[in-house]
Amino acid sequence: MGRYVLRRTGAAIATLIAASIVIFAFIHLIPGDPVYVMLGDGATPEQVARLRNRLGLDEPLVFQYLIWAGSALQGDLGQSIFFETPVTQVIAEGAETSILLAVITMFWIVAFGVPVGILAAIRQGTWIDQGLSGLAMLLASVPTFWVGLYLILIFAAGLGWFPSSGFPSVFDDGGLYNLRYLILPSLALAAPNAALILRLTRASMLDVAREDYVRTARAKGIPPYRVVLRHILRNALLAVVSAFGFTFAALISEAVVTETVFALPGIGRTVVQSILRRDYPVIQGVILVIVCLYLIINLLVDLSYRFLDPRVELE
Amino acid sequence: MLNVDNLVVSLRNGPQILRGVSFGIEPGEILALVGESGSGKSMTSLALMGLLPPALAITGGTVSLGGTEITHLAPHQRVRRNCGKVAMVFQEPMTSLNPVLRIGEQIGEAVRVHDPDAVPADRAKELLDMVRIPDAAHQLSAYPHELSGGMRQRVMIAIALACRPQILIADEPTTALDVTVQRQVLGLIRDLCDRLGVGVLFITHDLGVVAQMAERVAVMYAGMLVERADVGPLFRAPLHPYTAGLMACLPDPESDDPLLATIPGAAPRAGAVPDGCPFAPRCVRAASRCRSGALPLVHGGEGHSARCHFPLTAAASA
Amino acid sequence: MRQLLLTWTRPAVSRPMTAVGVLFLLTIVIFAAASPWIAPYPPDLIDPVNRLQPPGPGHLLGTDHFGRDTFSRIVYGARLALLIGVGVVLFALATGVPIGVLSALFPALGVVLMRMVDVLMSFPSLLLALGLIVILGQGVFNAILAIGLIYLTTTARIVYGVALRLKAEPYVEAARSAGAGTWWIVTRHILPNMISPLLVQASFVFAFAQLGAASLDFLGLGAPPEIPSWGNMLAESRIYITRASWLLLWPGLMIVLTAFSLNLVGDALRDRMDPRFREMMRR
Ligand SMILES: Nc1ncnc2c1ncn2[C@@H]1O[C@H](COP(=O)(O)OP(=O)(O)O)[C@@H](O)[C@H]1O
Ligand SMILES: [Mg+2]
């Protein structure tokens, strides 16, 4: 077990290092002197000198990378040019919104995608299945921001049930009630991903239902619902769990757009605004943190998957 | 005990896979069902279990057990109606056990349904002892992948016995196993049949093991029973040319010739079965009347019959 | 060629939904090819008097905030949709296929290349595309490259998997031991057998390229604003949604129906595929 965890963690760290090199190279791939790229053309000579010194731009590239990676490891992702505050602080300010949005979205995905996928599989071939599978494919073909705009149009502008934009912290006035600001965004964000999980759940249920051991279970004379829950579903969910890493990545991608539609003060919108403002240290920092998170989640998914499936040799 | 009468199984809106199969099994008796691969042996057993795949259905005939008809009942319906039980050991021990559940849970699950008063873990251990799995108490918490093929097949037998069946079907239970393990598992089935008095439908494509295992034999060809007999008379004087052909394929212990005879040609696929006798195209004795019309039932002694115009032993006729 | 035509048409006949999808895609192609004849107005004809008109006789689908005819812009938007789709598919295939095939044939190279693909895959797809846009600058061609980069990774993975399986097939091994060269194996055994997985992948990539391009447009980082793309139309209509909600409807529907149709076609193709490879094409 320990060896497996170690090997898997090692692979994740290797990927992280490679990804960090890509992120570091990013600033050098932008045409122009990195310092002017970062500070803009209106920079004063002192500013230029200070940044040049801080980034170690006169050193060879390898050293520059080590300096950058070293300070990142110590929690220093540099300074935002626009806000003139540490990048870590900019990220921290968006973290609450983005994390809550991700958690609520994940809840919708699991709460709708899995049970409805099971229903479609159990009713395979009937009009229920065809309707649900068709709907799932339709939802997977819909841009999240378009769903978001319609949700705003109907439930915020039209019916007035939910606010249309922004998100005051749950630590401010209103407390947990402020979560209502995240209902529409999370629904928009969940739609295509729940559809994918639905399709995956259905497909792997049908795959497992053809297995010999399911026939053995039926032969025992146990009630059909128990065959489904204990034998088919349990094995089918293994495949679904392994897709959660992928779902998380899709979620982050689409959160960038969703946060923009709903004007949520999250990390995703920060990235877009930083791109428009050419605030490169923030872009670099956010992407590094997100890749890190993604790798950690994938690692956890992988490890838990190995726990759930006794066939996998852990030694 | 078990009575199968003129059973017909067809593909939905398609050809017949089983074309009127009849036989009976008494308690404590082993009936061997023999035939080439694809002749319909597995479909016969799944039909008896009420477990045919969705593409297939019973379209004629009846299956009854202890006088109760169970033709169209799935296993859980048989439990609910409290009628007689058929249990089955499948061909593939490697894939027939759920990989994520412990052995004890998989046996216990059947115990809970068929023996509501028993303590599942205790009964499961008892069953593992019964199928001679060493260190049974410990094996209850093992996962299938931790066991060898032979052990898994024993577990499958234990699961079948947990259903307290009157009839046990063993569908080529040893094809996937090593020779030595094969002999042990066969011995176990023979022994359980004697000890528990269950009737066994023993399916094989190997006439060689039939003589050791069974009292009676039914030979299947292209979804039909072409010959039925007690073991002794069948080996001494087969009536049907197909049965004789199968015997000619057996390795001869007195000869060193490694080349085995084979019946020329191939069995017809379901849906492409010719009129008249399905074996006629491969049969050296076939004449024109074999190629159309009904086949006569010929007898060769007590309980020995075949469907053939030109049986090998002339003595009998309908 | 005939075989190819059959693979595309047969599933459409057996499934009515897919047939409708194929018809819709044909409409898009016709829109793109014949835009000047189909569109009643030039797509950028500004008419301030008639701004934000609801759908009606003069303007079939209404007008936007500059008084431009929505229907005409929808018709011209088909051009960009096809350009993006074809461009992304070509880029993804032209890069992903060699990477995947080479990795499968030369294991030592494969370790390095597939590792690099893994690294690219650890970036959430839209962020990867955005990063490339920052480096390359905004524009239609760069949007194609940016989205193509996302599907380079998935295509390379799938091609790698399929090629590995094909390489292990007895007839390929036999050809190798008989001394067939690498080029022979690739062109005779691997590529021909890869056509149907690649067709499936192409349909899905085409579909998701539409969604990706729409997202970039919506963020203002895709096609330049003067180009009538469906994504741009949505982005511009955003602030008028309460006053002129039809502006939101048509371009959105075009994106959804295009992606949906392509997904239907991809699904139908996949279901007719060799079951050995079907497993890899999930999602
Ligand atoms: N799901 C199915 N669909 C169509 N035909 C089937 C199916 N399962 C089995 N068959 C056909 O039924 C016949 C009998 O198969 P089977 O009972 O498995 O043979 P055996 O067990 O004697 O080898 C075969 O000809 C096979 O082609
Ligand atoms: Mg069989």
UniProtKB/TrEMBL annotation, chain B:
Membrane topology: Peripheral membrane protein
Annotated localization: Cell inner membrane
Keywords: ATP-binding, Cell membrane, Membrane, Nucleotide-binding, Transport
CDD domains membership: ABC_NikE_OppD_transporters (cd03257)
Transmembrane region(s): none
Gene3D superfamilies given in the database record: P-loop containing nucleotide triphosphate hydrolases (3.40.50.300)
GO biological process: peptide transport; transmembrane transport
Molecular functions (GO terms): ATP binding; ATP hydrolysis activity
Keyword Ribonucleoprotein included in the entry's annotation: no
Domain ABC transporter: 2-247
GO cellular component: a single term: plasma membrane
SMART domains documented for this protein: AAA
Family: Belongs to the ABC transporter superfamily.
Record's protein name: ATP-binding cassette domain-containing protein
TrEMBL record, chain C:
Membrane topology: Multi-pass membrane protein
Domain of life: Bacteria
Sequence intervals crossing the membrane: 20-39, 80-105, 117-137, 143-163, 198-224, 244-266
Gene Ontology annotations for the cellular component aspect, listed alphabetically: plasma membrane
Pfam families recorded: BPD_transp_1, OppC_N
Any one biological process term the GO annotation gives: transmembrane transport
Family: Belongs to the binding-protein-dependent transport system permease family.
Record protein name field: ABC transporter permease subunit
Organism encoding this protein: Halovulum marinum
